[in-house]
UniProtKB/TrEMBL annotation:
This is Periplasmic component (OppA). It holds the Pfam family SBP_bac_5. InterPro entries: Peptide/Ni-bd, SBP_5, SBP_5_dom. The lineage of its organism: Bacteria, Bacillati, Bacillota, Bacilli, Lactobacillales. The keyword Transport applies. Its main location: other. Signal peptide: none annotated. The keyword Signal applies. Keywords: Signal, Transport. SUPFAM superfamilies: Periplasmic binding protein-like II. Belongs to the bacterial solute-binding protein 5 family. It is found in: Cell envelope. Residues 79-462 form the Solute-binding protein family domain. It comes from Fructobacillus tropaeoli.
């Protein structure tokens, strides 16, 4: 295949974080020494403030900085008490007991209680909520039956007694402590949710806040809003910044220009190959680990060609991941070795988990041709015509589909025709969730540092993030074993993840493409920002200008 070099600069694919004094003509007035205000940006629009329904990193960024959970991830990557005063785990790993701090309040001054956590867990498990994250409750007593509509939410193993919360599990879950810091499990005030009804979480005013900041100014569609210090937050005395302005910045070059003009203090440089190449040697660059992966999902429920295993395997074999990472991303991403991204967590043997589980994805053009021809003959529907969908808000995503289209059409010739479908992020998300695609470029950022955050996505066809609707029993068995009999045995659990990866590759259910890297221009006088490889990508609750 001839060397592919088509760079595009359009919009931002990952969070653009920018902090500092207000820039004239952008944020408003420009008080250069205003230490009470920071300014940040999001790459694309917020989808919802309903924590039970939010699945995108942009909504989660707002929720993660305005809502608090029992625990919170600190700068060392450890979970520490937040709304909880303390927590303990039984010796068998089946009971978590949490003591809340006394006198907790919501942003409106009303009492925040243990019952608010019970309601939030029940709401996400309730099939009426239709939460895509309901699968994360699996393992809590009766959760699976509740999600399936077989038992009432009141049977969920999350109970409140005064200031004490008790979580009863059906099996040990090493990752459970991380769920107690997860944005989707932050408390929800039942009376408020019911009062707002269908409007809940659709605007800043239709949400109530438990965290360091209150959210203001978002009407559900606009791209400019702010966070204001929540004086009712239990640790408000250590929240140093009074106001954080946010704006949707869809042009990555704008953030770079504003940074270089001294008007903002942080801007990502990994949003296009050109920007990365031009700025990677700048002395202000800070690198951050990201547990994010890009992969192809094949619609195995609706597309007869993609139901054929030989065709899927041929597409995987025709994917030169190293060349893709170099040509389409300019080195801003690494070639994927497995579904699980780099930097998520270490395996028990000390290896990065992505290296340990790597099943051996290869590039083999000749074998790809052979398998594709066999698959086309078996399907017997003539030429394979499919759409390849991605985000219009991302230059690297557009580069990726351009590269893949050329690679597949040059490999399989007149046996295949690919139409690129480039849509806004919000539509791509909806198309994925609704199964309205043939092949879609999907991105996943780990929610917590444990292999289950990736592998739980595909345990079932009707829950989680299994948008391609495949069922792989070998995969299900391996993941189930990791989360049951091997749950307390780290080495055996890692071996199960490895078996799950092999099952995915053997059946070509997905196509791992890229593992992300983070790099930003960051002025050193803005302190206290925490970047997390998994979970909340940018924690600014303790950020301040020195």
């Amino acid at each position: 295949m001839k060397r592919w070099q088509k760079w595009t600069v359009a919009a931002v694919v990952v969070l653009v974080a920018v902090g500092g004094s207000r820039a004239a003509g952008w944020w408003g007035t420009s008080p250069a020494d205003d230490k009470s205000t920071l300014n940040f940006g999001l790459a694309t629009d917020i989808q919802t403030l309903d924590m039970s329904k939010a699945t995108d990193q942009y909504s989660d960024t707002i929720l993660g900085n305005t809502e608090a959970n029992l625990l919170r991830t600190n700068s060392k990557g450890d979970v520490v008490p937040d709304l909880a005063k303390s927590y303990s785990v039984s010796s068998d790993g089946l009971t978590y007991t949490v003591q809340l701090r006394s006198g907790l309040k919501w942003s409106d001054g009303s009492a925040l209680t243990a019952k608010d956590f019970v309601y939030s867990w029940q709401r996400i498990a309730d099939p009426k909520t239709a939460s895509q994250y309901s699968y994360l409750t699996s393992g809590v007593k009766n959760a699976d039956d509740i999600v399936a509509g077989k038992k009432p939410v009141s049977d969920l193993g999350v109970k409140a007694d005064g200031n004490t919360l008790t979580f009863t599990l059906e099996k040990p879950m090493p990752q459970f402590k991380y769920l107690l810091s997860f944005a989707q499990f932050t408390p929800q005030k039942e009376s408020f949710v019911k009062e707002k009804g269908s409007k809940y979480g659709t605007t800043a005013a239709n949400q109530i806040y438990s965290g360091a900041y209150k959210f203001e100014g978002w009407n559900g569609t606009n791209g400019k809003f702010k966070m204001v210090k929540n004086d009712n937050y239990w640790d408000a005395k250590n929240v140093k910044t009074k106001t954080i302005n946010w704006q949707v910045i869809k042009n990555p070059e704008t953030a770079i220009k504003l940074y270089k003009q001294g008007k903002i203090d942080r801007a990502a440089i990994t949003n296009s190959p050109e920007m990365y190449s031009a700025n990677k040697s700048n002395k202000d660059v800070v690198n951050s680990a990201m547990a994010s992966a890009t992969y192809l999902e094949y619609n195995q429920a609706k597309n007869p060609f993609l139901q054929n295993e030989k065709i899927r395997e041929a597409l995987n074999l025709a994917t030169n991941r190293k060349d893709l990472a170099s040509q389409a991303t300019g080195g801003t991403r690494d070639a994927a070795k497995s579904l699980v991204s780099n930097n998520l967590v270490k395996a028990a043997n000390g290896q990065d988990l992505s290296n340990y589980v790597a099943p051996g994805y290869t590039y083999d053009k000749e074998k790809a041709k052979q398998l594709f021809a066999e698959g086309i003959k078996e399907v017997n529907k003539g030429k394979m015509s499919v759409t390849l969908e991605t985000d219009a808000d991302s230059p690297i995503a557009k580069n990726t589909v351009d590269y893949l289209k050329q690679a597949y059409e040059s490999t399989f010739g007149d046996q295949i025709s690919i139409t690129e479908k480039i849509v806004p992020f919000k539509q791509r998300l909806q198309d994925s969730q609704n199964g309205n695609f043939d092949i879609v470029v999907s991105n996943w950022n780990g929610d917590y540092p444990d292999g289950s955050t990736f592998y739980d996505m595909f345990k079932a066809t009707d829950t989680g993030m299994n948008n391609g609707q495949f069922k792989n029993q070998d995969y299900i068995d391996a993941v189930t074993k990791a989360e049951s009999t091997d749950a307390n045995n780290p080495s055996a659990r890692d071996a199960d993840w490895k078996a799950a990866e092999k099952a995915l590759m053997d059946s070509a259910n997905i196509n791992p493409l890229l593992s992300w890297k983070g790099a930003s221009l960051a002025r050193p006088n803005v302190k206290g920002i925490v970047t997390n490889p998994a979970g909340l990508p940018l924690d600014v609750t303790r950020a301040y200008r020195k």
